[in-house]
Write a structure and sequence with these properties.
About 50% of the residues lie in helices and about 15% in strands. With about 210 residues, the chain is of the alpha/beta class. It folds into two domains: about 10-140, 3-Layer(aba) Sandwich (Rossmann fold); about 145-205, Winged helix-like DNA-binding domain superfamily/Winged helix DNA-binding domain (Arc Repressor Mutant, subunit A), CATH 1.10.10. Helix 7 (about 150-160) crosses helix 9 and helix 8 (about 165-175) packs across helix 9 (about 175-190). The chain is elongated, with a radius of gyration of 20 Å.
């Protein structure tokens, strides 16, 4: 049996797709200084895996589990396992989840497209007690502050996704139809689109 240094963090991988867990796991297994732990696809599995850990632990987390989205999982971790360090892995098209992860206290983020190069460095930094956010993500977050959608704009976009017309949205929110049109113009500008369909597509994809 191979000796394991008890100071080495155990890495638990959690994503709704087992194949994603296995792929990331094969990478983690070859990274020095960490120990590959269990995989989890739902909240119960993640809880069980974390309860079994007796030393330092890092959770490599996708944006969704089978029964929870990123926000719910981060809340669970902060409330029940505050000692766990968290690395969120996301696609470029899921930048809204990256933003959520950072605001919710994740220790690091890793873009799936860069995982082979980035994850070993990120895990190394976390072992030394340093949180790390890639420079390109920091730049994007810094540059987008004025373009962040407001709560009202999120409401209107959600009604667009639900198929409501401008008139129906105005009635639902107690706004004039002209005010709704004003909000839509601002939304299109922030999202960099010109049509209702393009705005819906970006919102559903989380690419805003």
């Amino acid at each position: 049996m191979q000796y394991r240094d008890p100071a080495e963090p155990e890495v638990i991988i959690a994503d709704r797709q087992s194949i994603v867990c296995q792929g990331i796991g094969s990478l983690v297994a070859n990274i020095e200084g960490v120990y590959l732990g269990a995989f989890a696809t739902d909240r119960a599995g993640l809880r069980a895996a974390l309860k079994a850990v007796r030393g330092p632990v890092i959770v490599v987390l996708g944006v969704r589990l089978v029964d929870a989205d990123l926000t719910q999982v981060l809340k669970l971790l902060s409330e029940e396992f505050p000692q766990a360090m968290v690395v969120v892995v996301a696609e470029q098209t899921e930048f809204a989840f990256i933003r959520t992860a950072i605001k919710s206290g994740a220790n690091s983020v890793c873009m799936m497209e860069q995982i082979l190069q980035s994850l070993p460095k990120i895990l190394g930094n976390l072992q030394e007690g340093h949180a790390i956010v890639p420079t390109d993500i920091l730049k994007r977050l810094t540059n987008e502050t004025s373009d962040t959608l407001t709560r009202r704009e999120h409401e209107i976009l959600q009604h667009l996704v639900d198929g409501l017309t401008n008139f129906q949205i105005s009635a639902r929110l107690g706004l004039s139809e002209n005010t709704v049109k004003y909000y839509l113009k601002a939304i299109y500008q922030k999202l960099g689109v010109n049509t209702r369909g393009a705005a819906i597509a970006k919102y559903v994809a989380g690419n805003y």
